[in-house]
Amino acid sequence: MLRCNRIVLGAALTALIACAGIQAVAQPIPLTDMSAFRTQSDNWRIVGDASVEISQVNVLNTSPGKGVLACIHKQGTYGANYELLTNFKHGDLDIEMDFLLAKGSNSGIYLQGNYEIQLFDSWGKNSAKYNDLGGIYERWDDSKPEGQKGYEGYAPRLNVAKAPGLWQHIKISYQAPRFDQAGKKIANAVFLKVEVNGITIHENVEVSGPTRGAMSADVPMGPLRIQGDHGSLAIRNIVVNNFDKKPGILTGLNYKTYYGNYSQDLDPATLKVAETGTGEALSWEVLKEPNNYVLVYNGTYKAPTAGEYIFKMQASGNSYLKIDGKSVLPNERKNANEFREGTTKLTAGDHKVELYLNKREGYMKPVLGLWVTGPGFREVAHHTQGSALAGSPADPILVASPVNTVLRSFMDVRNADGKRQRVVHSVSVGSPSNLHYTYDLDKGAVFQVWRGEFLDATPMWNNRGDGSSRPRGSVTSLSTAPFLAKVAGQANWPSDTAGIGYRPRGYELDANNVPTFKYEAFGTSISDKTTVIDNKHFEREVKLSRPISGLMARLAEAKTIEKVSEGLYAIDGKSYYIQLADKGTEPVIRKKDGRQELLLPTDKGEVRYSILF
Fold it and tell me: Which one of 251, 307, 495, 541 has the largest count of C-beta atoms within 10 Å of its C-beta?
């Protein structure tokens, strides 16, 4: 986890970054005006919201207000004057933002003005290239022969691009090139990690020089630059973590060891010391026994800058961490592969550190790791490399879907309140188009869809297992409630199928192994089939053997539901779309307990709609 100097770009950005030694900013700073940026054109502006015409190329609509940065640009008109630059310059940097692309749009984020991560409407592509969403754009050399001028472009591992007009999220962790005192470059730039829509698509990619379209040759510091001459887009929630300070140092380490089956509540000062020693870094390997021990380290943490520091620890058994006698991580028992974090404010200077371990569980491997993140510097490890190795993890058991694939397992999800929920009769359906979904046989509900690879079945099949599997892609969560119900007025939508005669009847596979789920409810037989369309989205068709008066289908439930155009609805702040097949049937948007539901009557004996994500 990489954190420090959390700054949300806005009017006060320049002043914030100019303040040396500032601690983490507690409150987001909205995009209220353009004072954080410079541009030579009026194609960039501050707006309140943005939306697109999903069927029209490069059409972006905006509404007045603040909080969103929009670029409205006619494609085919190029030039550096249309681009956006920050007033601040940076070296090492973490940046994350939400972005929304018009259909067919093309943009990019240039770190230091020179290294581009591509923003592109790649929705529906089964595979991705370096110039697709999240790709590290290629370098260019005009002196090379035709066909060889472009080189060193890096495609994302997966294409997880959403549909035009939906908000997407990108996180970039970037390490700038290094230079010696004479100005000679001694190390290349590295993209430490890039995530799109929650999925890691690059790790530790070294780039030998600036990508095509760079502002300059390699430099120690440069502005953040966003391409604005290839299409229309909107951006919000830009968060920058600027790493421009030296890290803290853990020094003067000494340790004491004690052996025996001691209670975690005992004061180590009352025990008989077995060994003492010193070290340059923390390590459990100073112990002579792998179990029934107490290990206490004392030392000094030299904080270079006043501010907020994050201490992350990994320790098997019971452990605690104190800074200047105050608890940062309380005495708790953890497994060898568990991590925990504590945050504290430190003044610049020396601070006393006490770290305590007590392990009495012979089945756990000893492990000790401590990482610190602070103002202006990335996470630093203060242990030996071997000390934090908790043992070889199980080889992952991964399920691919080179053909349409059906797999039953438990599935753990989060409900609308954020609480963990286990769906015990779930069926996951994978496709070679890299679009997948999970169905609840107990409720007739498609409760999640995702783009990427299919399933990680390690939790289900490793050793005894727990019966569950996990999606291996960018997940869009849908409703876990029953799909069909009768509700009157403001009655709650039911959470289960009690009292409706619900009986699952399994599923049938067609010639392409695509399942149709079948069940009985409300005195009728129901078939439910979800199909991949054009490698882009799902179409769902639910048929009733006979219409039932007053029966409604709930297509979506979310905090917000917005009608974008005829038959097209944006769900949960433009997280995904619901598109009706029959535009002549008007759905009901019902408000209930601060949330909204998209309901459709079933009086025609059929419900057909698409899930675009």
Answer: 307
